[in-house]
Amino acid sequence: MSLDQSEATGAAVTTTAVPATSTAPATRSWPGGTQKLRYGGDYNPEQWPRDTWLEDIALMQQTGINLVSIGIFSWALLEPRDGEFDFTFLDDIMDLLASAGIDVDLGTPTAAPPAWFWKKYPQARPVTREGVQLGHGSRGMASPSSPDYRRHAARITGELARRYAGHPALRLWHVHNEYGAPISECYSDASVVAFREWLGHRYGSLDAVNDAWGTTFWGQRYGSWEEIDAPRLSATVVNPAQRLDFKRFTSDSLLECYVLERDTIREYTPDLPVTTNFMATSCPSLDYWSWAREVDVVANDHYLTAERTDNHVLLALDADFTRSLAGGKPWMLMEHSTSAVNWQPRNIAKRPGEMTRNSLGHVARGADAVMFFQFRASRSGAEKFHSAMVPHQGTDSRIFREVTELGHLLGRSSAVRGSTVDARVAILWDQQSFWAQDLEWRPSEDLDHRERIEAWYTALWQRNVTVDFAHPEQDLGHYDLVLAPALYAVSAAARENLEAYVAEGGNFVVSFFSGIVDDHDAVPAGGHPGQLRAVLGLTVAEWLPLRRHETVTLDDGSSADIWAEDIELHGARTRTSYTSGPAEGQAAITVNTFGKGTAWYVSTRPTSGTLDALLGEALAATGIPDGPSTPGVETVTRTGDGVTFTFVLNHTDVDAPLPVGGSDLVSGRTVSAGELLAAGACAVIEKQEK
Description:
28 strands, Rossmann fold, 17 helices, globular, alpha/beta, single chain, Immunoglobulin-like
């Protein structure tokens, strides 16, 4: 049907980019309709004739699918001209899915404005830092700060919410798609205006902005708000505090767009959960700690880095971080792939059984939904070589058979739903600190926060120690051990929180180049590691970055590289010393008693064996068990009401002993501890607690 523009529903449109807040508390509700684990994926019926829809729905029933995401890229069909709406295809597919007992995660199509929008509102086009205005023909969104974009996004969202409120298939709302990719920082005129307003809200006065940015350096002081621009390319390095604030502004601006659509939806369906799909560890432009407070259920997209042989470890890291964003509550794997993707340099196919291991790896770490992009492989467009649940080969394929087997396995595993994962160890993750560390002119190009986090996480993964991720300002009291592999920027609130945690008996392990600046990227008075000097019981007189391929030796016989430090002890004790290099004879790893707790400091990048020994020492000191550990075999436990579910994933090419016995949901047999699990296989062992 068609509506005149005057008949279209409207919604208030915010154009000032200030930190978003809820108009109503997030309910954190789960999509209703079944007590089973959710299984399904993105479905794009608009790419296929109706006869194919009927075939697809029959295949969905065959594979056990109970939830599909639809409508995500359909704006041009739903609103073919400005203010004219046609929901014919969406009405039809919604009704067909409802009749088949398949629930819908209905997307708002605002990640892909239609061609008429781009032609009518050229000023809404995003602009790169280089000053290039981006055009139509890809996926993505307009400038997040564009009033025209926000107004039209709210309108199409309102039309959808009004029309499908009460539809029997609708169980969940899916706002937009992967905010921050590919559009994040935007340097349009609208963004500059919104940035100034954001600064006014954050700082209250221009003097406060000048002070926070240290604009007396290089004569950058501002005399009026209109003088402030986005941090475009300049003759040399742009003010790092300004760039850091622009990254914060970008995350907040995108979050405002989500909140605008979410609140429009809630006017019509206040009882239904609303979410958007995160890319937890792979979208550096969003501070997901802020975003997680605004969604009703945390949902995540994850794709393996195909060429890395340890990508199953990175999958676990991503899942643990997503669970942490969800506050330990069940979350949704909204997208992953059945096999190869289409956008990496080398798109490696998954081997037999790998898709099931990947899926159960997410479930093991708290996911109560397993979904894919996408149901049927596209024949045209940029993602036609991306794998799917129904590949180009069709149903007579290994992939489709594995998809069907996985659906049946998840159907048998309904008892897992709602159980939780407990962790006694936390790794600190602060996206704003990462933003600051990654700016130009740091002491060494080898300072890589992601590399350090992966290395420390991997050491714990190999010991089968389950890890949460935590923000440095959140309550840490329930963790026995907190790790900071990379915490360059530390706010005053974070410093006080970390000191209180250790003083009350916590155990804290810190890596080099942490605590260096405050939340304005300014160096605190008194020397490094500024914000962490007291808790670590030391100061760093000078950093001693190493040359490429240069190594130093330690007195335990191991070696280290990229970094050393000239440390002065102020209460800390030397655990390990340098025996060569620019810091020869000085402390390399230290231990400090602070109140009732202990803080370790690692001033270099040790070998994996040395790092493992140090973390093993910290685990032993806190009484945290590690293992049972067979190299390459992942073991994670979820706990429910009087029952445990132990997930055992054998990532190796040899058989391995099961650590526990019980009822295996995968094989349907009762298994015993020590029984061999086949190479590449999985077990989910249910055991009633006595």
